[in-house]
Design a protein that fits this description.
The chain is mainly alpha-helical and about 130 residues long. It has 2 domains: about 10-50; about 55-120, 434 Repressor (Amino-terminal Domain) (Orthogonal Bundle), CATH 1.10.260. The chain contains 8 helices and no strands. Helix 1 packs antiparallel against helix 2 (about 30-50). The longest helix has 20 residues, at about 30-50. The protein is elongated.
C-alpha cells in the first residue's frame, strides 16, 4: 500500500491529488481503504499546519441566524427581551452563562465559540488583566 506520513507541503499536495483520484472508490475496496488512510493523514496535517480559529460569540450567533433564517426575535427565548438581544448582537453586553447554555442547547452553537472572548475583549487591557490574574 506504500503510504507515508505527510511531513512537507509537497507531501500534502501529493496526498490531496491522490485523494482526488480516489474519490469514486468503493468503501471496502483497497482503493477505499487507501482513500480513508490518506484522508486521515491529510486531516492530521491540516490540524497541525492550518488550524481553524473558532468565531467569536457574536459571529457564531450571527452565522447561526443566517443559516437558519432566524431574526433577533427568535433569540429572545435564549437571550431575553429584544433590547438584550440587540445589546448582545451589537457587542454592548457579554453573554451570561445561562445565555451560553441556552444558545448551545437550542441552536447547537459550540460552547467553545460562545465562551471565547469577543474581539473588543481582546484589547491590551484584557491582556494585562489576564496576566495579573
Amino acid at each position: 500500500m506504500d503510504i507515508k506520513l505527510i511531513k512537507t507541503d509537497a507531501d500534502y499536495r501529493a496526498a490531496l491529488a491522490e485523494i482526488e483520484t480516489l474519490m469514486a472508490a468503493t468503501l471496502d475496496s483497497p482503493e477505499g481503504e487507501r482513500l480513508d488512510l490518506l484522508v486521515t493523514l491529510v486531516e492530521a496535517y491540516e490540524r497541525d499546519h492550518y488550524p481553524m480559529d473558532l468565531p467569536d460569540p457574536v459571529e457564531a450567533i450571527r452565522f447561526e441566524m443566517e443559516q437558519n433564517g432566524l431574526t433577533p426575535k427568535d433569540l429572545e427565548p435564549m437571550i431575553g427581551r429584544s433590547n438584550r438581544v440587540y445589546e448582545i448582537l451589537s457587542r454592548k453586553r457579554p453573554l451570561t452563562l445561562k445565555m451560553i447554555w441556552r444558545l448551545h442547547r437550542d441552536l447547537g452553537i459550540p460552547t467553545e465559540s460562545l465562551i471565547k472572548p469577543s474581539v473588543e475583549e481582546k484589547g491590551p487591557s484584557s491582556i494585562m488583566n489576564s496576566r495579573n490574574a
